[in-house]
Design brief:
The chain is α+β, with helices and mostly antiparallel strands. It folds into 3 domains: about 130 residues, Galactose-binding domain-like (Jelly Rolls), CATH 2.60.120; about 100 residues, Sandwich (Immunoglobulin-like); about 300 residues, Glycosidases (TIM Barrel), CATH 3.20.20.80. It contains 8 helices and 32 strands. The strands form 8 sheets. Strands 1, 2, 3, 4, 6, 7, 8 and 10 form an 8-stranded antiparallel sheet that branches. The chain is globular.
Length: about 550
C-alpha cells in the first residue's frame, strides 16, 4: 500500500506482488536464495539479523509500454533493472525514487533490485550510529504504465487571505512524445476547480503554476483535521490521458516573537521523538503498528511527533493528517562532527535527501516544521555554514513552513539566529545531575546571547533510560523503571511550566536498536529511553508521562 487512498484513477498502477527471491552476496548471508516478502527489512529473517552486505531481489512482472517503477524505500543503496536494462540508481533509505523503461514489449519481464547496506567511503549519511541501519526493500514497490505524458508532481501551498483561503498549485508534467502537443491541466480541490492551457514541447518536462481560490474550505486543525482531495488531470484532445490524486489541508503555520502560531492560535507542544522501527519488523513498520503508535501517543496526551532522524513513510504521515497529530519531519543526518561534515559527499547527499523529503511530503498538512542536522557541529564556523545552506534550501523549496534543528547541549552554537524555531537537546539528571530548571535556564541564556532571544524555543530532546522489567523501588538506580519515572517527572514539569518554552519532545516514544558500535553505553544494544519498549509494552513511565501531559 502506497497511501491511505488511491493516487490514480486513469493511470494503471499496482503494487508489486509481495513474494520476491532474495540472494545475498556476502559473508553472513543466506546459504542459498530464498523467498521473502516485500516490503520488509531483511533483518527480520533469522539468518540475516546482523547482515551488512549486498542482496539481489528478483521477481517476474507483467507489463508493457512506458513502464515506471517506483520504489518507496530501499536501504540504502539501490540499482534497479528491468530485464538487463539499468533503470536507475539511488542513495538513501527514507525517500522514494523511480526508474522509467520506454516502449517495453507487453509480456513477462524480470525486475531486479540490487541492494547494499554496507558502510563505506561512498556513504556520508549512513554510518555507524545511535540507531540501526537496516537493509532491504523496506517500503512498497509500485508498477505504473503511463501514457505519452504523465503528471509527476503536484505541490499545494495553502495561503490564508483574510477570512478565506487560496491554494498555490505547482504541477510538473513529463512529456514523452516527439511532437509538440497542446492540452489542458485541470486542478480540483474539494468543490473548487480551475482549468489552464498547457503546451507540451517534444520530449520535455513542463512546470505549471496556478492560483486556485478556495473560499468555502474549512481549516485543518488538530482538533478538527479537515482534509480535501486534490485531483489533477491532464487532458489532450477529448481524453484524460493522466491523473494524480493527493490530499491537502488548509492551515497556516508561522512564528511571531516567541510563539508558534497555527491559524493564528499559539501552539503548546507535547510530543515524542519516534524512530520508524518496531520490534522484529525493524524499519519496515506495518500500517497497523503505525496506527497503534499514534493511538498510544494520543492516549499519553501527545499532540505532536518528531520523525527522528529521517523522513518517514508517507503512510505514517497520512495517519497523522487524519488524526490531527502535528509532525516535525527532518532529513537524514544525526550527530556529525565537523570532520564527518567535511566528507566530500556529505552536503551533496544531504541536499538530495532534503530535497526529496520536501518535494515528496510537502502536501501533508500535519507537518508544521522542517528540520535537519540533529546534533551536528553547530558550534564551528564550517558546521554553521552547512546549517545555513540546508535552511536556505528548505525555505526555497517551501517558504510556508518554519525551519529548525535540534542543537546539542554543548555551548557555543552559531546558528541560533538562523533558525525560525530554536530547538535544544538537554539531558539533565540523566547524563549529568544538574537540576532541570538550572540546565534549562542556562541554555535559554546562551540562546539569548547567541541571537535567538526573539524566536520560539522547543526542548527537542529530553529524557532518561530504563530497561523494561528492571525494578529497583528502594534505591531507584540507573536503568530502573523507577529512576526513569523520577527523572521524567522533574523534566516534564520544569519544561512545561516554563513561560519561555513552546513545547517538549520527549526522548523517546519506544526503545530502538542501535548499531553494535554503541553497545558500551546502550544496554542490549538498544537506546532504552522509550516509555514503551520495542514491542510497545509500557514501562512505569507511561503512566507518569500520561498524567503530566494531560494535566500540565
Amino acid at each position: 500500500m502506497e497511501r491511505l487512498f488511491p493516487t490514480h484513477e486513469v493511470r494503471t498502477v499496482r503494487e508489486c506482488a509481495p513474494i520476491w527471491k532474495l540472494t545475498t552476496l556476502d559473508e553472513g548471508g543466506l546459504p542459498s536464495p530464498e523467498k521473502v516478502t516485500v516490503p520488509l527489512a531483511w533483518e527480520a529473517h533469522p539468518a540475516l539479523r546482523c547482515y551488512k552486505g549486498r542482496g539481489v531481489y528478483e521477481q517476474q512482472i507483467r507489463c508493457g509500454g512506458n513502464v515506471r517503477i517506483r520504489l518507496l524505500g530501499v536501504s540504502f543503496r539501490a540499482k534497479v533493472f528491468l530485464d538487463e536494462e539499468l533503470l536507475c540508481e539511488h542513495y538513501g533509505a527514507y525517500t522514494a525514487f523511480e526508474g522509467l523503461a520506454r516502449d517495453v514489449l507487453p509480456g513477462m519481464h524480470t525486475l531486479r533490485v540490487e541492494v547494499d547496506n554496507r558502510f563505506g567511503d561512498d556513504s556520508a549519511l549512513h554510518v555507524s550510529n545511535d540507531y540501526y541501519t537496516y537493509g532491504g526493500i523496506t517500503r512498497p514497490v509500485m508498477i505504473e504504465e503511463i501514457s505519452r505524458a504523465c503528471i509527476t508532481a503536484c505541490h499545494v501551498t495553502p495561503r490564508r487571505k483574510g477570512d478565506a483561503w487560496e491554494a498555490k498549485v505547482d504541477v510538473t508534467v513529463r512529456h514523452f512524445s516527439s511532437r509538440e502537443q497542446k492540452g489542458t491541466l485541470s486542478v480540483q480541490i474539494g468543490s473548487h476547480m480551475l482549468d489552464t492551457d498547457i503546451t507540451l514541447a517534444p520530449d520535455s518536462t513542463v512546470h505549471c503554476s496556478v492560483i486556485l481560490p478556495c473560499p468555502h474550505v474549512q481549516p485543518w486543525a488538530p482538533e478538527d483535521p479537515k482534509l480535501y482531495q486534490v485531483r489533477t488531470e491532464l487532458i489532450i484532445g477529448e481524453n484524460v490521458v493522466d491523473d494524480l490524486l493527493d490530499r491537502t489541508g488548509f492551515r497556516e503555520i508561522r512564528t511571531e516573537g516567541k510563539e508558534i502560531l497555527l491559524n493564528g492560535t499559539p501552539l503548546r507542544l507535547r510530543g515524542f521523538n519516534r524512530h520508524e522501527e518496531y520490534g522484529s519488523f525493524g524499519t519496515s513498520v506495518p500500517l497497523s503498528a503505525m496506527m497503534q503508535d499514534l493511538m498510544l501517543m494520543r492516549d499519553l496526551g501527545a499532540n505532536c511527533v518528531r520523525t527522528c532522524h529521517y523522513p518517514n513513510d508517507p503512510l505514517f504521515l497520512d495517519l497523522c493528517d487524519e488524526m490531527g497529530m502535528l509532525v516535525w519531519e527532518e532529513s537524514h543526518v544525526r550527530g556529525f562532527s565537523e570532520e564527518k561534515m567535511r566528507h566530500p559527499l556529505f552536503m551533496p547527499q544531504l541536499l538530495q535527501c532534503t530535497r526529496e523529503m520536501v518535494e515528496q511530503h510537502m502536501n501533508h498538512p500535519s507537518i508544521f516544521v522542517w528540520g535537519s542536522l540533529n546534533e551536528c557541529a553547530d558550534d564551528t564556523e564550517y558546521g554553521a555554514k552547512c546549517y545555513r545552506e540546508i535552511f536556505r534550501l528548505l525555505r526555497d523549496l517551501d517558504p510556508s513552513r518554519p525551519v529548525t534543528a535540534a542543537l546539542l547541549e554543548r555551548p557555543g552554537s552559531r546558528v541560533f539566529r538562523d533558525c525560525d524555531i530554536v530547538s535544544i537537546n538537554i539531558y539533565p539528571r540523566w547524563y549529568h545531575d544538574t537540576p532541570v530548571r538550572d540546565a534549562l535556564e542556562k541554555k535559554i541564556e546562551e540562546c539569548r546571547r547567541g541571537g535567538g532571544e526573539d524566536r520560539p524555543l522547543i526542548v527537542s530532546e529530553i529524557g532518561a533510560g530504563a530497561i523494561y522489567g528492571f525494578h529497583d523501588p528502594f534505591a531507584a538506580s540507573k536503568w530502573s523503571e523507577e529512576r526513569q519515572c523520577k527523572i521524567l517527572e522533574e523534566q516534564i514539569t520544569s519544561v512545561l511550566s516554563h513561560p519561555g518554552v513552546s513545547g517538549i519532545f520527549l526522548w523517546q516514544f519506544a526503545d530502538v536498536r542501535v548499531d553494535e558500535g554503541w553497545f558500551a553505553s546502550r544496554p542490549r544494544s538498544y537506546n532504552n529511553k522509550g516509555v514503551v519498549d520495542e514491542y510497545r509494552r509500557p514501562k512505569l513511565a507511561y503512566q507518569t508521562v500520561k498524567d503530566l501531559y494531560h494535566t500540565l
